[in-house]
Amino acid sequence: MQSQSKWALILVLPACLLLAVIGLLPLLAVVNYGFHDIFSLSDVHWVGFDWFADILGSDRFLASLGRSLLFSALTLAIQLPLGIAVALMLLSFGRFAIWGLMLCALPLVVPWNMIPMLWLGMIDTQSGLLGPGLAAVGFDYKFTALHTWALILVMDTWHWLGLVVILSYAGLSAIQPQYRQAAVIDGASRCAIFRHSVMIYTEAFTINAGGPNDATRFLSLELGEEIKGFSYGQAAARATLYFLIVLAVTYVFVVVTRRQEDRP
User: Fold this and answer.
1) How many helices (H) and strands (E) does the chain have?
2) CA dist 56 → 50, 63, 120 (Å)
3) In whole angstroms, what separates CA 78 from the centre of its chain?
4) Mind listing the pLDDT tens digit of every residue in the chain (264 residues)?
5) Using only C-alpha atoms, what is the Rg of the chain?
C-alpha cells in the first residue's frame, strides 16, 4: 500500500510542477508587483501597502464591490434554478436528451467578445430580431441603469445557462432512479429529494462602458481601466485583493457545505 502511494505521488508530480509554473509563479509575480509603482520593467519603485490602502479606502471600490456582489447574486438566483429545471426536463427525454444538451451548449462556443455586439444588434429596433418585437409591445429600450442591468443579466444567462444545464444533468443522471423511487415511497417531497441529491467585464464594458453614471461599473472594469492606463502596480494590488475576496467566499462556502454534511 505504501509503495502504491509513492507511485501515485510520482505520477502526480509532473502535473504539480506544471501547475506551479503556469499558476503559482505568475500569482506570486502579481502579488509582488502590487507592492511597487511600475513605470516600466526597468523603473520599479517600492511603495509598500500604499496601493492596497488607496483601493480599500476608495468609495468607488466599495461601490463596485457591492454591484459585483449583487450581480453575482442575481445571476446565481436566475441561472441555477433555471438550469436545474432544464436539466430535470432533459432527464425525461431519455436518449434524445443529447440534442437538448447540444442546443444548450451552443452559446458557450460563441466568442466572448462577440456576445455583447450580438445582443446589441438583436435589440436594434430597425434590423434586430428582438427589437421590432419589443417595440411592437411598447417596450422602448434605453440605456438607463435598469435597462442596462436587465440586458446584461439576460445576456449573461443566455451565455452561461448551458454550462449549468450540462453540469446539473451530469450530476442528476449519475443518481440511480431506484434512490428517487425509494425516497418517494418514504414520503420525501420533490424539493427534499433534489436537495439531498445534488465573466462580466466584456459584457458590462461593451454594452454601456460601466454606465450610466457608473451603474454597471463592476470590479473587473476598475481593473481593466488600470491595466489600460499602464498602472501595473495598482492593477496588481487590485488583482491581489480580488483574489483574496474569492478565497474568502470560497472558504465560507466550504465551511457551510461541511457543516451541512455533518448534520445527522
Assistant:
1) 13, 2
2) 10, 11, 34
3) 13
4) 556 667 777 788 888 888 888 888 888 888 888 888 887 667 788 888 888 888 888 888 888 888 888 888 898 899 988 998 898 888 888 888 889 888 988 888 888 778 888 888 888 877 778 878 877 777 777 778 888 888 889 888 999 898 889 888 887 777 666 666 665 565 655 555 555 554 555 566 666 566 666 666 777 777 777 777 777 788 888 888 888 888 888 888 888 877 776 766
5) 23
What is the total residue count of the chain? 264
Residue 36 three-state SS: strand
Q: Please say whether the beta carbons of 129 and 122 come within 8 A.
A: yes
Domains of the chain, with CATH numbers?
59-262 (1.10.3720.10)
Place of cell 505520477: 11
Amino acid code (one letter) for 47: V
